Each structure stands twice: as structure tokens, then as C-alpha cells.
Amino acid sequence: MLGFLKEPVVVTAKINVNLVALTVMGLISRLWGLCYPRAVVFDEVYYGQFVSLYMKRIFFVDDSGPPFGHMLLALGGYLGGFDGNFLWNRIGAEYSMNVPVWSLRLLPALAGALCVPLAYQILVELHFSHCAALGAALLILLENSLITQSRFMLLESILIFFILLAVLSYLKFYNLQKHSAFSGSWWFWLLLTGVACSCAVGVKYMGLFTYMLLLAIAGLHFWHMIGDQNLSNVSLLCHFLARGLALIIIPMGLYLSFFYVHLALLYRSGPHDQIMTSAFQASLEGGLARITQGQPLEVAYGSQITLRNVLGKPMQCWLHSHTNTYPIRYENGRGSSHQQQVTCYPFKDVNNWWIVKDPGMQQLVVSNPPRPVRHGHIVQLVHGITTRYLNTHDVAAPLSPHSQEVSCYIDYNISMPAQNLWRVEIVNRESDTDVWKTILSEVRFVHVNTSAVLKASGLSGASLPEWGYRQLEVVGEKATKGYHQSMLWNVEEHRYGKSQEQKEREVELHSPTQMDISKNLSFMAKFTELQWKILTLKNEDTEHKYSSSALDWITMDTNIAYWLHPTLPAQIHLLGNVATWASANAAALVYLCLSLWYLLRRRRKIYDISEDAWQLWMSAGGVCGGGWVVNYLPFFLMEKTLFLYHYLPALTFQILLIPVVLQHLSDHLCRSVLLKSMFSALIVAWLSSVYFVYCTFSPVTYGQPALPLTELKALRWKDTWNILIRKQ
């Protein structure tokens, strides 16, 4: 029974020495001196703020993309014991001792290091020689710009890692297709493709470009499978469902999970939640939640409410009034109603309170039982402090003369009667009998007499002059097509009014609410709102000293100064390996010209290379050349501030194209032994030049050693490069 113990248990394994050596060299190149400089480097000042907010569980919104990349950076801080206490306000600021610099920079460095063996494996899976694969890995290893970007708390190296992992996984899956379909390894690589694509998109939306490329390639491959008569209809259906599950359903689920974890971690109110809706803010601990906790849910006649405009950008504001009136005449000579001003005020104030009144009754308190206001009901809105009614009439607004002025009505005993009836329209209602709910309902107020809609027009225009205290204009918008968010309002603070006397009511308006009711949003509601904010909330793009255009990237006519030592000439720049960039451009041009030549010749039934070589050439171009195109051309359509580091994913694919072209030239154009020997010698000389350029620029890649001024000036190979020279 124990006979198996008579023989030793032997485990054998194949070790690819090339792969191990490349991984080790990649780790050394990216991890060496990782804590230097112990100061904030370029965009670390940006991403570091988010890491601190994660450590403190404070909610934030970053319009640059999804949260997965930020969470990975925060994971490094968590593993290093970072408490989040550091002021990220200046590039070059020295890190305090509580900041685990090595830990914060570790994950981007590891991702950058692993890109080296990934490049090797991609070329192997494309059926190129190990020599070509080794060349691709060495080019990635010696690319100065990729080294610089991966050694700091930045996201590009993580993005490129997941992009390359997705490409490699799909190639491995595809190569298993013919002989091992639906095997364990087949499923593993297919599922890993979807996971890596989702992670790439979760780091930055730039990952979507490669994801779309892989979906297109997968679709093309499946189209070819449809024509395979050896596959049954059932088999084709299984293949289709497997790809749909792994490449669409799972990535979507994983993408949602990033936001789920993000929202679960950031449960505290912070400076960024003001751009979210009141319902979202109320779901966070502290902030608005402290104010709104316990409010009545249903708005009733007699309710005391504050009305927040749903748009919330460029700032949040509340419907507001005060005792001051509109001037009799404006500066342009137009007249006004001289009624009490109504504005949208970007701060919480007692003058933001209004009372919902039933036009058929005089009481300003909630009855027992309360009578809820429903969609379509007619109400009057009474200003809580001045007790004047919200009103509009056919008088031009101060800043928007094509819209009606909104005021609180003052009876001057002239021929301008009050027009203060408003119809409540709940835009996000589920039925026409829906009750107006605190925080949750988005409401339009339609003026009964004129059909004008209450609108915070000041959110998209200028503020009122000094007579309006620079507050935001509110108008009655006559054109009511659609539901622009500036026309929508939600009740934020709410209490049931109990005091009929004005003095008692003023005291009531200053006091907090007491009733207890929960208004937690579902995850999907929070995800939808947050996703929409990320996609639509754009900071004002300002010209940056180191911003550039997409045309500047190909020839590297620009650079970025990442860090400068406060006293020494030591500095770090985002600069690429000139030899590699020039070679990548040449390889792309050669590939394009050769492909066009082959296509023309094949059209004439002239076949210069075998069908297998042609398929290899086209598949490699589809992956490497296609990866460059989809990661580069979209930037010509983007209206945003661009930097050189945006080109790095495209550059990575372009670098992979170099050994593809070189091996093709060697195999099909160098037909004699002499030509092959000469070509090999040229490749060795070219690789030596790549290594020379890497060594030359390594002082500004790693920031050390500090070079004397003469050597720094010598590094300015192009007049457009901004190498920092201190005046003596």
C-alpha cells in the first residue's frame, strides 16, 4: 500500500533562461535606487492626493478615469503603512518620514519591469524567432522613457503592463485554438484576456483602445471559424458564447467591481462630494449626511425645504432670496419689476429656506396627518424669512433678457398682480402619482400662468452685479424642450413646519431636523452617477509648460522635466531613447511600404513570399502596427491637454514592430550568406547604438549621478528639449 514511497518524488520543470534573465534585468533597471529622489516627482503631486484620500477613506472624484489604478497606488501605500498625512501641494517637496516612498513606487516599477518579459513572450507567440523576441525585450528594457515613467507613483507603466498582458493572453489562447479548444489552459488564457482588458480600462480609459483592437481581432478570427466546415453549429455557438462571456460579460462585471470597492472604501464625506447629487452626498458619512439624517422623506404642504439645483457645476447652489430688490433700471437702461431678488446662492444660508404652501389654504404648517405633494400638484413657494411668494411675470431677467425675471412678489398696488402658482413635475418619477421625495426626486417647477420653467441660468453664465451680491441668476425659461439639469431641483434639507407665527418659524428654520429616516442609495445608482460625473466633468484645460501635440511625439520634439534637485544640477526628464524612437518610425514606414508592395504584387498574382509568411506578416502587423495606430491616432481628436507620456502605450507597440520587420528582411530579402552576415553585423551595431544612447541619458533617467553643466548642455540634442541649466 505504501509502495509508492519506495521511489523518490521527482518534479521536473523547463526553465526559459532568456525569460528569467530578462525578468531579472527588468527588475534591476526599474527597482534600482527607487527611493531616489525622496521628493515629489511631477504627477506624484496629483496621484498622491488620491492615495491620501484612500488612506483616510474620504470620497473623491477624478475626471481622468476609473478608480482601479488609483486603488493599486493606494495598495502600495497601505502595504507600506502610510497614514495619508502629507501635503501634496508642490513638485519637489521633500517627503516626510511617514511617507513610504519605496512602497508607493513599487507597483508601478514592478509593472514596468514585467513589461520586458511580456514583450519577449508576445513575439514568441506571434511565431517569431527567440532572437527577434529577445531583441524586442531588450528594446523595452533600454527605453529611457519607459524606465522613467515606471519608477514613480504614476499609472502609465501599470496601464502598459495590463495592455501587454491582454495581448499575450489572447495570442496564447488563439494558438491553443486548433488543438486544445475548451481545455483548461484554453479557458485560462481566454479568461485572463478579458480580465487584463478590464484592468487596463480600469486603470485609464486609454486601455479601451487596445481592448477594442482585441475585440476586433477576436471577431475576425471567429468570422474565419464560421467558414470552417469541420465545426458544427453547436460548436460554433459554444465558441461564440465562450468569447462573449470572457471578453464582454466578465470585463463588464470586473469593471463594476472596481467601483464597488472604490465606493466601499471611500465612505466619508470630503471636498469632492459637492459636485454629486444631494442623494449621493447624503449616503456619505459626515457632511450632508449629518444635516439630512432623520429628515422626512415625503414633501407635504407646509414642509420647510431648501432647493438645490441638480446641475451642481461649476458649483452647487440653492434657491435663495433676501430683502434686497432688483434695481428700478439696469445699467443698459432696461427696467425691472423692482421686486425682491431671487438668486441661486452657492452657500448654505437661512435665506435658502422655502415653505411649500397649498394655494387653497392659508396655513404654513404641516397638517396631521401630512398631505404629501404629488407629481402635477400646484403649489406656492413662500420664502421662509421674508414670507414673500416665489413669482415670475413677463419682465426680462437682468442678465438673460430672453427669459423671465424671477422674484418674490411685493405688492406695490400697481397693475402687476402676483403670478405665484407653480406646477410640480417630478422628472425621475415612476408613475404620474409619485410623491415628491426629499433628496431623491428631481423636480421641475413650471409656472402656471406663463409655462416658464424655473432655471438657474447663472451656472452657465456670469454672476449678478454688485447689487445682486455676485450671486447666480435665476430665471423663468420660456423654451421648455427637454430637461436640462439647470432646470431641475431637488429638496436637500427638509422639516415639517410646526409654527404658524413668523417669529417662532424663524427659530424653527435655524434649528436642525430631528426625525429619523434612512435614504441610502443602491450601488448601481451611485455607480451610474459617479460614472457619469467622470465622463462629463472636465477641468478647465490650461496650457502647461510641458504640454505638447500628438505630432511632436513621433519625432520626440518635446520632453518633460520631472524633477530638479534644489541645490545640485541633478534632474530627471521624460526623454526617450532617440535610437529606438527613430528605429520604430523607420520600422513602421518599412512595414507600410512592404505591405502595400506585397498587396499590389499579389493582386497581379505575383507571390514574393509564401502564404505562411504572408499570414505571419499580416498577423504581426495587425497586433503591433494596429496597437500603435489605435493608441496614437485618437489623440488627434481629443480636446485636452496632452503630454509626451500619453504616447508611451503606442510607442510600446511600435517598438515590438522593429524585430518583426528586421526578421522579415533577414529571412526574405537577405538571400545569400554574405548578405545575412552583413545584416547581422548591422543589427549588432544598431543595438550597440541603442545601448549607448541609453547610457548617455541614464543620468537624467535615474536622476543620478549629477552631471556638470557642460555635460548637461551636451544632452540637449534638439533645440526643442528643455534641459534645465541653473545660472551661475
TrEMBL record:
Pathway: Protein modification; protein glycosylation
Annotated EC: 2.4.1.109
Record CDD domains: beta-trefoil_MIR_POMT1
Main location: endoplasmic reticulum
Signal peptide: none
Molecular-function annotations in GO: dolichyl-phosphate-mannose-protein mannosyltransferase activity
Ranges of residues in domain MIR: 296-359, 370-427
Keyword Transferase part of the UniProt annotation: yes
Pfam entry (one): PMT
One GO cellular component term noted in the UniProt record for this chain: endoplasmic reticulum membrane
Topology in the lipid bilayer: Multi-pass membrane protein
Keywords: Endoplasmic reticulum, Glycosyltransferase, Membrane, Repeat, Transferase, Transmembrane, Transmembrane helix
Protein name: Protein O-mannosyl-transferase 1
Encoding gene (name): Pomt1
